[in-house]
Design goal:
Oligomer: single chain
Strand content: under 5%
């Protein structure tokens, strides 16, 4: 999965800090980014709890943690990422899976593209490039 430049910088800084901490304490560096104090990966139940608490506190609707994956894909499509890119980010084995799951979002993007055809400059440009009627008839 691609990382943003900002995320990559944060992860590199975290890795450097973790290495320094490991050297200071004589413990091995964990292969995980997010760990408990004993450097073990968080249990999935704990992650779900930590994710749901702020939602409850803020009065937002509770959603499964997995919904973040769909939010990411939806945001990518809304920002006109190619389906090939979305497929890769989601780890789908086929573009068909991506289209099956997110195809309904593409229709709204298509509508935006079609609405661009209403642009007056585009219409004027298109009519200027049309062949003259008599040249077509004489052919």
């Amino acid at each position: 999965m691609d990382k943003s430049d900002q995320l990559l910088a944060v992860l590199k800084a975290d890795k450097t800090a973790a290495a320094a901490e490991a050297l200071r304490t004589g413990t091995p560096v964990s292969e995980y980014v997010f760990t408990s104090k004993n450097r073990k990966p968080f249990e999935s139940s704990w992650v779900r709890k930590i994710f749901s608490n702020p939602l409850k506190t803020s009065g937002l609707r509770a959603v499964p943690f997995h919904a973040l994956r769909h939010s990411c894909a939806s945001a990518l499509i809304a920002n006109e990422a190619s389906l090939t890119y979305v497929k890769g980010q989601m780890g789908h084995h086929s573009i068909n899976v991506t289209v099956d799951v997110y195809g309904h979002l593409i229709l709204s993007a298509n509508r935006a593209e079609v609405n661009k055809l209403d642009d007056e400059k585009l219409l004027k440009s298109a009519t200027q490039t049309q062949p003259e009627k008599n040249r077509i008839e004489s052919s």
